[in-house]
Amino acid sequence: MPLFVRSSLLTCVILVACCCSSTETAFSTQVPYRLRFFHTHTVERLDIVYRHGDKYDPDALARISHYLRDHRTGAVHEYDPRVFDLLHDLTLAIGRPDAEIDVVCGYRTAWSNEYLRSHGHGVATHSLHMQAMAIDIRVPGVSTSKLRDTALALHRGGVGYYAASNFVHVDVGRVRRW
Question: How far apart are CA 72 and CA 170, in angstroms?
Fold first, then answer.
């Protein structure tokens, strides 16, 4: 093999190796988006990285959607990942990035939604819980009023405050409050 071809080939191999290692390094240094959950009804815990930089992990998203299933029926619905980003940013904004989030309610089927409505729980007819775009939460050690105020300041969707029940509703619908 002529020297010119050999040195060109070697240059290509080095360039490919550099590109591959810099891509891997860039991915591994991207900020992991981690969420920690405790479900108050199923008593399950989940500690999961669902995103690296701007890349969502499809398996992690599926695991979270399953975790947030309707606890009355077992039905699972694919969650809007913006909810997870909202929760991540909310924990950062309250100064508790590693906090475990208590899940009071995740996804709800139409049946569960109507069940709650008919039993006087003040549930909206067209709740975003039924579209897997909402979640009811609390964060141990953080007052629900602080959680509400911080969620409102993010301007990322609806925020409901349920002081008597000690939880906050957040969703990724239009910005509103109740």
Answer: 21
